Amino acid sequence: MTINMKHLLFSISLFFLSFGSFAQTINSLPYLEPFDDYGVSTNDNDVRPQYWSVYSMYSYVTNNVSPYISGQYSSSAPGSLFIGQGGRARLPIIDNSIRIDSLRIKFKLMSTVANSTLKLNLSDGSYYPENLIEFASITPTVLNTWQVYEVWIDTANALYPYLKLSSGTIDNIESLYIDDIEISYQNTCERPVNINVSNISANSATIGFISQDNETQWEIQYKSSFDISWSNATTVSNVTTNPCTLTGLANSTPYDLRIRAICSPSEQSDWTTTRFHTSISTLPYLNSFDNYGTGARIMPYGWTKISDYNTSTSTVFTYNYSSPGGLIIMTNSANNYVIAPKIDTSIQLNSLRVKFQYSVLSSASGLIVGVMTDPMDTNTFVPVGEVSTNFISSWEEKEVLLSSYTGNGKYIAFKTPYNSQSIIDNLEISTIPSCIRPGNITLNVSANSATISFTPQNNETQWKIQFKQSADTSWANFPEFDFSNTPLFTMIGLLSTTAYDVRVKAICSANNSSEWAYSSFLTAIDSLPWVESFDSYGTGSTTFPNYKWKKIVNSSNSNISISTGAFSSPGALRFNTSSTASSYVVSPKIDSSIPLNTTKVKFKLRIQYNTHKLIVGVMSDPTDANTFVQIEEFNLNEANTWKDIEVLFNSYNGNGQYIAFKTADNSGTCNIYIDDFEISSLPTCVRPTQLNISNITPTSMDVAYFNGVNANQWEIEYKPYSDTSWQNAVRVSNITTNPFTLSNLPPSTVLSLRMRAICSATDSSEWTYYEKPIYGENLDFSYGNFANWKGYSALNTSMGATLGFSDWAQTIGDTNDLISRTKFLRVNSDTNANDVTVPNLKAIPSGYNNSASINYDTAYYQYNASRASKLIYDLDVDFTNYLLTLNYAIVYRKNNYNFYEGPYFSMEVLNLVDSNGVFVENGRVFPDSYYDTVGVFAPAGWNSYENSSYENYNWKPWTEKQIDLSSKVGQKVRVKIIASKPKNQYIKAYSYFAGKTEGFEKATCYPPLTVNVDDVGSTYANISFDRTMPTDSNWVIQYREIGDSVWNQVYFDTNNYFLRNLLPETNYEAFIQTLCSDTTYSDSSHVFNFSTPTLYIDSTFNNQTAYLCGKYFYDDGGQNNNHSNNTNYTFTICPTRKTTDPLYVKRTKVNFEEFSLGQGDVLRAYSGRTINPLTQLSVENTSNFTGNFLENKSIFANLSDTSGCITFKLITDTAITSTGFKAYADCIDRCQRVIADLDTVFTKYDTLGNISNHLIKTITDSVYSDMDSTWTYNTYRTVDFCEGDLIALTAKPQFPDNNSYYNQSINNCIYYWSFGDRYYDTINYNNMVGHIWNEPKAYKLELSVLDTSFSYLNGVGCKSENDINTIIRISQNPIKSVKAPVEICSGTPFMLNVGYDTNSTIVIDSIKRVEKITGIFDSLVFIPDGPNCPSLFMETSIFFDEFLPNETFDSINDLRSVCINMEHSFVGDLSIELYCPNGQKTILKHFNYTGGSDMGIPGYGNSGCEMSLTNLPGTGWTYCYSNQYLDNARGVISGNMTSPIDSSNTINNSKYYQTPVQNATSAATGFETPDLNGFSTLLGCPMNGEWKLRISDYWGNDNGFLFWWKLDLGQITTWDYQAGLDTVLVDGVNNYNLSNDTVVITPMIDTSGLIRYDVSIIDDLGCVWDTATYLNVAQSPILNLGSDSSSCAPFSILLDCENPDATSYLWLPYGDTTQTIIANSPQNGDSSISYIAQVTNYNGSIYCTSSDTITLFVSSTPLSPTNLNIEEQHNLFKINWQSNAQSFELYRNDTLIAITQEQEYIDSNLVHGENYCYEVKAFNGICESDISNEVCEVFLDINTIETNNFNAYLYPNPTSNKTILRVEGLNENANVRIYDITGRLVKTIELNANDEELEIDVENFAKGIYNIRISNSTINITKKLIVNR
Fold first, then answer.
1. Which of 42, 113, 124, 697, CA to CA, is 20 to 30 A from 726?
2. Closest to 692 measured CA to CA, from 705, 679, 682, 675
3. E strand residue ranges, 1821-1878
């Protein structure tokens, strides 16, 4: 302590002043101010003493406040005056009637921060400038202790009437408390000091002191400390001895004692006070600490405290076991001791027991009980026992036996170790009992039982136990249980989730038992949900549901209790934190029957400040914070607002059974409230938890999470953080990875995010919210604020060449870093804004969106002198941001400055290193990673500016600096910018800053950062670089020729690599990637370029290989010198290839454009990479190339050589040289040829389901031209079929080079089909395809075949290039008309004919087709007047998509014509150009400055840029451009033509056709020069896409209009054919076949009316076209005379015509006209007679006659046949006989086998080795002969030697009712199955092996085509049957 004053009295006092004074002016003494009459300050209201003036001095370093009355500490309750750093407190003015130099100021002072200083001043009362005289300065050396000070004012200082108190500094933290100020006159009689009380006993004490004057008499008063008034004190007067002894004191009593000096009978000093306690002589000694009051620094009377370093606290505290007080013993960094009053010498301390209630407020707390001999010397402390507890802020009874103590100390002391917060209450010091109760009780509980264990204290073996529910207040009704031997007892039958009390005592003997030892517990939770509302416990700072919930409080300044302010009244669980240590609250135990990872917790949460956090987790031991396992962390973005919280425990896999809450370690002062807590089971679909955001880039972030059960997919939604609704959030679904990278995020946007699980299509979880705002790197201020930045302010304190600043005060950072403007710092976001001082300076540089102004004065702070500002940004360097760009600009007022005392600016990039958990600056990253300047009058290279007020400024324009931080990856760096005004000057000096970072995408490894290319040769380059990471060991380089689209790649494992096989004379670009793993790569390095020189065959290239394609190489003389002599070079030229190609896919061709070797020199070439005589190449049978032989000749590598290379041997002798060679190396595709082709047949599936094969036809068209009398022939193939048919085509590619290098097969090909109808198909490895064309017309069929046999080499394969020249032709219905019905009689034939003649019944027509592809632009477009308009040209477009993908313009005939309908007033102005989709063009009309003709008939007006009333269209003429004439009928034909616009721009109106002009300008004339190459400049154009017509007007004063234009692309296909009449099927009552286009139809005799006949016409493409014709049939008479009659003798018969209503009858041959006649047979045998009857009917319009004939036969009886003979032939018998009869019956072995009219019979149904006998009988009509003689023969079958061929026939076919299946060669039974055209089985018949014919009934079959399949074990044949109706 240092004091500057005349005289100061010092003492430590516990005396309390209890009165005060209120005065506006101090005009009487004493003046008293106890600060107890105004109330105390709160967070919302500062209270200050009346008539005092208080204020604070501003600091940029500390947060200074004005003095205020505090209730936290006071010597006399309730208040004291707090003065912090910068604080000033001025008392009321002292009246001039009071002499200042006669005053004494007495006060109590306490400091809580070391080195805090109180200054006492006299002031004149002014504020600025203030006149002060400092007369005292006090720095307390003892902290946290009230001390009394007295100060006198001497005459030298007594100049001003105000007394002023102030802190020592304004920029250092200080904390002072002042109380009980007394201002009075100085006393001439000084009081005694340093009172010492000694020799204390139970009833007496010795008092000693130090006298300050020469007095010899004193007065003493003493009283009980509990007596607050001295009026009843005992007074001892006339004390003349020092020391003196007081007697008659009460034992175990605290006393207050005071003494004063008696200087004279009329003069006494002030009192000096102390306190002491008589020794304890009566036991038990009890102290409840309830009679002392409570508050800071209150100690029990007679107790003392001492600390090793005076930094600890002990006091009677409001936290207690029994209200109102308990004794708290706290320590910080040293041991703290609290000592009880002395124990009387009559009592032995080793007979005592110390018992008390014990609680702690932090987990580190403990309490040691011991004995001291000197209460003021900690070295005398002897520990005896130690107590602890696992329950934070809970009370337990503890006892310590002093029986082990052997010393002579008389003071029982309590010691707390470092950082302890222990509290004792209800202390009892008594004699140790004879039977000591059990100790160390522990409980292990479950839902329905609890096991208690303990430690016996007496070696006893018997105990009693009693337990009850805590709700029962009495133990009387509960039994006691005896148990013995083992100190363990299990209580069963308990209720779950119920509070119980238990007590146990020891039985030492039959008459001696201990006191009860108590404990309580709560049984476990075994049923969910379990709810806790915290509403049943009451509220208060000490209210807590002990033994139900548990708490761990690790700070004396923190508390956990049940508090008001609940979500649901009255109570909520409250964390009151005021330190950085964590506190815990632990739930009741959850029974082991409920796995914790199947539960969730819901509760309400409110946090006072949004910077504080609550952590939810699990504990396995509720008393051990180390068992806490975090599950989820919460910090609410909205402070003091209730939020619904849900925590899932599915991620927990430990054995904990307690759910716990924990405050964060850095929580500081805050209130956290929890209410309505519920534990329940997890849902079926569990939401993800533990969301973690990392790797944030401007457009991406990684989201990690803990997977919920049953989920296999997740969804994320994100939205701007400012958006309060999720309605418009972006949803990302089908998430299956963890973590998941969200990409394509909106940059510079603060986001909110939520996530849920998708367990099934119908089951999804609730959302899990990521509560924090998500924002990333903000070096570029992209968020429009100072997020992640820190700002500071200071004063420029520099001294000349020494830079200096006052302590930097933080202004931005931590909780307020989201602001965009504060004091001297602001973010600029207007990219158009200029600096307000220098208009030419942009506030934001080009290419940036934001910047910061540093040290920029706002209007409010405009005139701050010396002001300096600092911005810092700490950057975690990785490869995503390693490239740092800093941009800055500076402005300051021009002046002459004294070096650093002038404006100062710096920008640095600094290393940051970890120093005990704090990152500190450690030098610049690189020597040049800074900018540092001091303001001078005119800095070099800067700009200057003078404003209208003649103020001159220096300004540095935006300057960019880029720093490569790759060497700092994984480290922290700091960007620090400082801008300072000149010292003590108010002028402007500020800077701007803009920054950004660049790098690679986030990855596991990264590419080289800097790549060097050295030593570049014609075929190689040396690539070197530093390893990006030490573990990098493998890389891949990708390189390509600039302009190429394909990258080559090479893998390598050294960072100094020679890249070989490069092309000479080539510009390369390349980049390198690092291999992260076998399958993953880093991002690409920056692309670097290099160039290779020309290849010369010299000694450096000897035995080397060059990969060339499209490159030259030369001899060693180069392009200008001869080759060298005496050389022997071997070199190889190979085709270029991609490094990923497994083998070479091309072969080399070398063409020697120049070749001249000296005499005796030779060049040899070999196919391959080596010199092998077997592979030596020859040209024109020459293999040794000398002289000029190879000039303009080429050498090819063999197709069979796998390398494709050519190796050369060049040998020159020592004699003559020559010019050498210039060779061009090219690469030829190694593909063996593939020729696309079709099979000669195709398969047709018609609409009826019929399947048939047809030949592909070859057609030659001939077209005659009238204009040049020539014929044009066009040969192509056709696939002809019918509308709706499905066609199956078979590709049959040809491979003429097969097996030259590899094997080719149709099975290795991919087939690309284009069907001409905008449909395409790709078939892999199958050469068949099917397709249906929907419209009947012609289509171009195209086939491209990709042979993949070679794909393993070139990655693709080899493709055909030919046109298969095939047209698809689909038949069209040829039927033109059908005649009206004709009336005929039934049974009368009618001739139906089909033909082209219009007289035919059915008229058909010929078909003609013309097919082409045309695009039309049909819209009126104005052609602007060129130079006078915004655009010189007009463009319109036509779009094609009908062609095959990638189909190109391969022939000038592919563009048939382009026709333009337009008008324009001056031809010479124009150019007309046609652009194809890739930008190639052809010039249709060239601009050539001459020609005055109009195009078309122009309208009104000849200028202007748009159509108007004065610019109206005229009449357009059509101008066509083509290589061929255009014919309206046939399309394009060949021939020359007249140009529509000739070279002089004259219009040829008769013909508007012209070949496009390619070489359009003649150098001599500038006129058009016709070029007959036509559209050749369009070769290679894609056919599909946008074709543009551009018309440009290059001269003014004219305009025009485009009306339309059209473009005809593709070859014209002309198809003429006649509908042939191969077959016509007619179906009516009967079925008919057409012959020669005609069929005779006879209606059934019994029909009448309108009868329909269906007609099917089959054309020459095989297509069936159905129509119908009708006949109006009149009924003819139905006449039936019966069957013919015969007899062996003459006979007669009655014949009847019937039809009695007939019009007439007629009998022939005799002419009878009656209805009946008698007819007679002939009289002679073997003769007959026929009778014809005719009957006629008339229906009113037509006569219909019917007739019938009957024949009467008379036969003779024949003779028996003779000469019966058997003739054996091959495998049958031929039987013949002789007879003149009409017919015969043949019998074999007495069985009739045949009836025949022939006289022979073939019998083939014979069995080898059988004997057969034959007989025959003759017949004439019904007359039969006798049977013939019998003839027999044994059959020998020659089939046992020969194989019989099988044949089958169907007849009739077609048929309508039945058909006969005749078989030949059937050797075993067979199945006959009949299928319709769809393949459906219709019928199955068994065919026996011995059946030659099988009749098949099809009468019920539908019309159509059927397949009949005959099969057995040896045959399988199908026949087709047509069924008609």
1. 697
2. 705
3. 1823-1824, 1831-1834, 1847-1851, 1858-1864, 1870-1875
Least confident of 407-411, 585-589, 1606-1610: 1606-1610
Is residue 540 within 8 Å of 562, Cβ to Cβ?
yes
Of the candidates 1442, 1426, 1572, 1578, the one whose C-alpha atom is nearest the C-alpha of residue 1503 is 1426
Res. 688 pLDDT band, cuts 50 70 90? confident
For the beta sheet containing 1402-1404, the strands, ordered from the edge strand earlier in sequence to the opposite edge, are: 1375-1378, 1402-1404, 1390-1395, 1638-1641
Pick the residue with more confidence: 425 or 1444? Answer: 425
- Report the percentage of the chain scoring pLDDT > 70: 87
Flag whether pLDDT at 1037 surpasses 70. Answer: yes
Look at phi and psi of residue 1126 and say left if phi exceeds 0, alpha if psi is from -120 to 50, else beta. left
β pairing state of 1382-1385 and 1664-1674: parallel
**CA dist., res. 964 & res. 909, Å (int):** 11
Lowest mean pLDDT among 145-154, 523-532, 824-833: 145-154
Query: Minimal CA–CA distance to 397: which of 491, 519, 304, 483?
Result: 519
* 1767: nearest Cα among 1743, 1810, 1732, 1802: 1802
User: 632-643: string of b/e by CB count within 10 Å (b at 16+)?
Assistant: bebbbeeeeebb
Whether the upstream peptide bond of residue 324 has omega within 30° of 0, thus cis, is yes
Distance CA 992, CA 851 (A): 7
CA distance 572 to 593: 29
Residues 6+ apart with CB under 8 A from 947: 837, 953
Residue 679 CB contacts under 8 Å (≥ 6 apart), including other chains: 525, 528, 529, 530, 587, 590, 599, 600, 601, 659
Shortest CA distance to 1589 belongs to which of 1430, 1423, 1412?
A: 1423
Q: Give residue 1444's pLDDT band: very low, low, confident or very high (50, 70, 90).
A: low
Query: What residues pair up with 1736 in beta bridges, in sequence order?
Result: 1704, 1745
Long-range Cβ pairs for the range 1780-1785 (8 Å, 24+)? 1781/1818, 1781/1819, 1781/1820, 1781/1825, 1782/1755, 1782/1758, 1782/1819, 1782/1820, 1782/1821, 1783/1818, 1783/1819, 1784/1816, 1784/1817, 1784/1818, 1784/1819, 1785/1816, 1785/1817, 1785/1819
Q: Which DSSP symbol is given to 1353?
A: H
State the pLDDT at residue 581.
Answer: 74
Question: How far is residue 772 from each of residues 636, 691, 720, 775, measured CA to CA in Å?
Answer: 8, 11, 12, 9
At 858, the pLDDT band (50, 70, 90 cuts) reads: low
Which segment of 291-295, 1062-1066, 1202-1206 scores lowest on mean pLDDT? 291-295
How far is the CA of 500 from the CAs of 463, 473, 523, 621, in angstroms? 19, 11, 8, 20
Q: What is the pTM of this model?
A: 0.41
Q: How far apart are CA 491 and CA 523, in angstroms?
A: 11
The answer to whether residues 1584 and 1441 touch, using CB atoms and an 8 Å cutoff, is: yes
Residue 1100 DSSP SS3: helix
Are 1273 and 1260 spatial neighbours (Cβ–Cβ below 8 Å)? Answer: yes
Paired strand residues for 138: 118
Q: Which residues of 1303-1341 are buried (b: 16+ CB within 10 A; e: fewer)?
A: ebebebbbbbbbbbbeeeeeeeeebebebebeebbbbbb
Which alpha helices (DSSP H) does 74-168 contain, by range? none
Range 40-68 average pLDDT: 78
Q: Contact 927/942 with Cβ under 8 angstroms?
A: no
The answer to whether the CB of 1490 falls within 8 A of the CB of 1468 is yes
Alpha carbon of residue 586 to chain centroid: 39
Question: Average pLDDT of 28-48?
Answer: 86
